[in-house]
Description:
The protein is an alpha+beta fold. The protein is built from 10 helices and 20 strands.
Amino acid sequence: MNKSDVTKFKKFIDNDNNFFTVNNVLTAVINKDVVYCTEKRSWISYSQSEQEEIVSIIKKVLTGKIGKVLTEYEFPITPEKKNVSQELLMNMKISQFEDDDLNEIFINKIKDGVKTDGAYTVLSVNFTISVYDKNADHSDEVSFVVTAFCPIKLRIDGFIYNDESNTVEKKTSTDRILEQASDGFMFPTFTDRQEDVNHVMYFSKNAGKPNVGIIENVLGCKYIMSSEQQKTHFWGMVANVLGEDLNYDMIVNINEKLSDLVQASEGLKEAREIDCADIQHILEKCDVPKDKLDDFGKIYDKVMSSRYSSFIAANVCDEKVNIKFGNSSLKIDYKKAATALDVQMVNGRKCLVFPLDSAEISVLGIDTSVNHSLNV
């Protein structure tokens, strides 16, 4: 699923949409290795406010940047061996949570495979959307399973308004609040208005700390490095090979080539991946000598294993170049970074100079002008 696919799909997720029907909701509270309760309920048994909250959770699991917060995983399948997790999800999708034995297997798989610091609630929703096929002039009913993992936090402090006594007083009761989903997934994916049962979309609120247990143990997929890890590995390898040649202009040039690649691939169904050959080609276009290109290939093979064979291009570049110097920092569009900045000696000090097209600037959102007598 690309950005367009996700955006179009989320438009279906609306309780007032006649093409969207929730069949059943499966919930469970899990703390470490214990399942405290499991419940399957029909959609009509929930109040309207509860339904609205559940719909918002579904949308949350489908919100975020593709390749960072949202990552599409392919189920690894061989002719000799089926993917057990994919089979289970397919059966859950078809049964619409009406099979109690399947529900128990699903929840126990989560209990055994997911490790967290505290208690959490599994909220799994089985819903159907009607997809109109204009070529066949009819609608197809497609079922989906969206599962959210919501941490449970104890709320025991703070003041409340007591409407019975009409006073503001210390809160004395203990509430166990379900926080926003920290992780989740949707099966199957939805590409070009068609279901794709060979892929699953994984959501992680913290792109830098995905729950590997969900990806590998529950979904049965091969974990892909987080966006932060990819960026660290990528630039670490580049710095290792280029050494002192990795100056300001080179960094901006590489980032620009990567950003151009991302923009050129925005219409693709999946996030654009880059492997060793792609990176070597980018470095070659940045005039990196051939001997260093060969060195990069050796380091790539050493650092990257079969588990991590490629990077997602959008994860290793930035739209803005963040420049830090001393206790200060400057963020600038990468297209302007190579030409807009200059290093000059001002009053005997080396300074980073940023030319202004006019004296009008904005400070803390307030339009103002630069004092021409201000020393740099």
